[in-house]
Amino acid sequence: MNGKIKELMDTVVKNDYCIGCGLCASLTDSPLTMMLNEDGKYQPYLSDNNHNKDLEISVLSICPFAKNNNKETEIGKKIFEEENNVEFDEYAGYYIKNYAGYVKEEEFRSKGSSGGMGNWIATQLLKNDLVDGIIHVKSSPDDNNLLFDFQISDTVDELLKGAKSKYYPVEMSKVLQFVKENEGRYALIGIPCYIKGVRLLAEQDKIINERIKFFIGLVCGHLKSDMFAKSMGWQLGIEPDKLNGIDFRKKLDDRAANNYGVEVKGEKDGKEVVLISPTKELYTTNWGQGMFKYNACEFCDDVLAETADVTVGDAWLPEYSKDSMGTNVIVVRNAIIQQIFEDNMGDAIHIEELSSEKVYQSQAGGFRHRRDGLSYRLYLKDQNKEWRPNKRVEPSNKHSSKRKRIYEKRTFLSQESFKAYKLAEKNRDFDEFINYMDPLIKNYNKMNAPSIARRVLRKVKRAAKKLIES
Ligand SMILES: Cc1cc2nc3c(=O)[nH]c(=O)nc-3n(C[C@H](O)[C@H](O)[C@H](O)COP(=O)(O)OP(=O)(O)OC[C@H]3O[C@@H](n4cnc5c(N)ncnc54)[C@H](O)[C@@H]3O)c2cc1C
After folding, report:
1. Interval between CA 10 and ligand 1 midpoint (Å)
2. Could you tell me if 272 and 129 lie in one domain?
């Protein structure tokens, strides 16, 4: 077998650091094919064991989680440093300006996950004839048990059909092969590690470099296996193989933006149904507990898609979260996109400039886990002499014992959730999942609860505030 492919399989894939992006399988003559594994996560499989030929590009040089591809800052520097008025922030990477905002025109905001900026920016690229097609994730048209996949939209109507976040496994091998075979100018929407991977590919592949003109990044907490979608449908009465569709970000009028719902479609008791529930009321949806999380996400330090021309996420700040329609946090790194914002502010869009500090705060939990927590996870890997990719974060053991236990337990909860789900599926009973996970979650919550001293202090503060106000 080709030595580089063998090394990829023996390190990244074997040790469960594969994020399933499909870059390795997209290369011409690659013997790899992307398929879902038993945990509902994409990974490459060898379709031809006797493949000895060297590929034109080494799989190790483009895989986002290969040993030495911790290059987010380096890539950002090469691409963005030349832009006018660019600044650097250790969390956002290079940036021109940051904003909070939403789209005022048409249906972008109501159809979007947050303020609708993701698809609005893509629309501007199409309307201004800067690209011919947008590579993004839409409902899968094929009868293949997959709910979503990467497709290319070349009209605004098509683009809007693919609005909203897909917390679901997707891979890019086929869509990148299409780009290579079909001339055109494209923009790619993706999570941070996917964008970094395609940037690495573009450094070596002339066609990809010429054709993918813009990268729109999504802020990322972590990616989910397909068990996340299936478990939500199941809790609402749709068995995993009867789930036909899911909206992970149903806006609920009477609730804050961060208290959104989920809408599932499928067959329940022999009838086609559409069911909605506030997401937080479902058992598997606490993002801090990280159920069905790809292990690779535990070893990622790029929350704000630092190699993208523009990044959009949720402005999880109290002043914006109260609006159920949703508000984006936006980091702009490309001068053309900055100009689009300036030309449209006030009319088509509402935007307010944000400091880097505020951008950080909007994702503070994510940064704690992916920088502070990552340093401890790296330390543990080194202690156990286990393979791991290099990261921009250094390994460290200098955390409070409580924080260390929280990070350890989160990893454990995530790993156990896969086992619990498989057990439930085997017995065709979701209660099996709850019975398995409940003691683990109780144990985690107990450790996470504020200490008695802190609870007493909070009570005293509340009483004092009441006294002052009366
Ligand atoms: C796995 C994942 C984790 C995320 N974690 C966070 C987080 O921790 N914090 C945070 O603030 N925001 C997070 N986001 C981003 C957030 O959910 C919204 O996608 C973002 O705010 C854009 O909303 P919008 O209304 O502007 O987008 P829209 O106008 O709805 O446009 C979204 C665009 O993104 C495309 N898209 C959706 N999912 C994917 C995908 N998986 N891969 C490629 N393209 C996709 C859609 O097809 C659409 O074109 C995450 C998104 C994903 C997919």
Report:
1. 31
2. no
Following CA atoms 391, 393, 397, 398 in sequence, which dihedral angle do they give, to the nearest 10 degrees?
180
Domain boundary among 348, 364, 380: 364
Residues forming beta bridges with residue 190, ordered by sequence position: 217
Please state, as a whole number, how many other Cβ atoms lie within 10 Å of the Cβ of residue 14: 11
Residues 97 and 215 in one domain: yes
State the 10-residue block means of pLDDT for the chain, 470 residues long: 91 98 96 97 87 88 98 97 90 98 97 98 98 98 89 97 98 98 98 98 98 98 98 98 97 94 97 97 96 98 98 97 96 97 96 98 97 98 98 97 96 98 98 98 87 77 76
Q: Is residue 201 part of a domain?
A: yes
Probe ligand 1: pick from 21, 102, 113, 188, max atoms within 8 Å of CB?
113
Contacts 24+ apart (CB under 8 A), 427-435: 428/239, 430/231, 430/234, 430/235, 433/231, 433/283, 433/284, 434/283
- In the DSSP assignment, the letter for residue 224 is B
298: left (phi over 0), alpha (psi -120 to 50) or beta: alpha
77-118 pLDDT per residue, tens = 999 998 778 999 999 999 999 999 999 999 999 999 999 999
| 290 occurs within a structural domain | no
For helices 401-426 and 373-383, the axis angle rounded to 10 degrees is 80
In this structure, the answer to whether residues 265 and 150 fall within a common structural domain is: no
Residue 351 DSSP SS3:
strand
Q: Say which residues have a Cβ less than 8 Å from residue 464's Cβ, sequence separation at least 6.
A: none
| Ligand 1 pocket mutation, candidates 117, 119, 153, 165, criterion most atoms within 8 A of CB | 165
Q: How far apart are CA 11 and CA 32, in angstroms?
A: 15
Q: Which amino acid is at 96?
A: I
Is residue 140 domain-shared with residue 185, that is, in the same domain? yes
In b/e form, how buried is each residue of 111-120, taking b as 16+ CB within 10 angstroms?
Answer: bbbbbbbbbb
* pLDDT for the residue 180: 98
| Residue 374 maps to a domain | no
Distance separating alpha carbons of residues 327 and 118, to the nearest angstrom: 11
Q: Residue 254 is part of which domain span? A: 226-280
Distance (Å, whole) CA 36 – CA 242: 18
What DSSP line would sit under 46-90, residue for residue? ES-TT--PPPSS-GGGT-TTSTT---HHHHHHHHHTTSTT-EEET
Cα 190 to ligand 1 centroid, rounded to whole Å: 8
